[in-house]
Amino acid sequence: MKVPFLDFQAPYLELKAELDDAYARVMASGWYILGEEVAAFEAEFAAYCQTKYCIGVGNGLEALHLILRAMEIGAGDEVIVPANTYIASWLAVSQVGATPVAVEPDEHTYNIDPSLIEAAITARTKAIMAVHLYGQPADMDAINEIAKRHNLQVIEDAAQSHGARYKQRRTGGLGDAAGFSFYPSKNLGAIGDAGAVTTNNAELAERIRLLRNYGSRVKYENEIPGYNSRLDELQAAFLRVKLAKLDEWNARRVSVADRYLATLGKNPHLTLPVVPDWADPVWHLFVVRHPNRYNLEQHLRQNGVATLIHYPTPPHLSAAYCQPEMPKGSLPITERISNQIISLPMGAHLRDLQLDIAIATLLEDI
Ligand SMILES: *Cc1c(COP(=O)(O)O)cnc(C)c1O
């Protein structure tokens, strides 16, 4: 039996009737951009995230980009970002002309280490972007406290954390604004590209609503220079169907993670993720460390178990950012992590037998 890294067909088959119905409903409506489905999804997702507002946009990168634009962060400004993240968190900052300033992670949770943030703040710093990496919330109270002291905005990159809780509160409402991605592999995934911003700030929400639609509230009246970054009706209709399943699917991910955590400690070469007691992660990814991960990857592959690496190259070492201020060795914790991590099969549709095979193979002393 093969153990896929992630199964895209099973969620469709589970919800086939509802998804096909959503498709037929939108097709028959004759209205495909900014209509009832988007408005309904925005209301439902805001309620889910315990925020006042949700604005559907084109994708996760655009969500972060439009938040920064709406906050009027731009050339000459700096934004604190985690060194250990997907490159999109950094790219959003670069797209508005600001400079991403990297802060190293906590070596156990992989999230930004709040105790290192203050040393990175300068007179140009405008915001802190926290990423809830792998579905585990960052330490938001510590981050918000620093931001308050220095008068900074707080942005959550919640692209991997739909439904995760920090001290009982859902991610998406823990800072000034949050960016979500509904890329198909995310915990809440569309059938294509999609994203959203959540916030409790009415003014920010209104500005993002304008920015996503050509700076326009009324057709052909353009108040500010905007963009075209809209969530479309079809994706919104699919997302509404899947949102109703999100808690159940996240719970299944938690039970997969619980089994990994309860069993894999028996292999002394593996370092397992650490969950602080205030965090309820949703396990977008289950990432372990191994001193010789390519041997482990090969052994798993030979036994039909697929793995991936998230991410093999940290942003500062990618060709996109390679620059003299951030040479190899300049962010040693991030670099050490990125040389050892490997992501195990994880998802709401991983079957018990597949999980048994993955665990048995992982426990062979490689
Ligand atoms: C997926 C992801 C994004 C970007 O989302 P897209 O929808 O692909 O643009 C941003 N940040 C993180 C942490 C992500 O995982």
Automatic annotation (TrEMBL):
A Pfam family reported for this protein in Swiss-Prot or TrEMBL:
DegT_DnrJ_EryC1
What terms describe the molecular function in GO for this protein?
pyridoxal phosphate binding; transaminase activity
**Database matches in CDD domains:** AHBA_syn
Q: InterPro entries this protein is in?
A: DegT/StrS_aminotransferase, PyrdxlP-dep_Trfase, PyrdxlP-dep_Trfase_major, PyrdxlP-dep_Trfase_small
Residues recorded as bearing N6-(pyridoxal phosphate)lysine in the entry: K186
Residue ranges spanning the membrane: these are: none
Q: Which UniProt keywords apply?
A: Pyridoxal phosphate
Active-site annotation: K186 (proton acceptor)
Q: Which family does it belong to?
A: Belongs to the DegT/DnrJ/EryC1 family.
Q: What protein does this entry describe?
A: Putative PLP-dependent enzyme possibly involved in cell wall biogenesis
Q: Which organism is it from?
A: Chamaesiphon minutus (strain ATCC 27169 / PCC 6605)
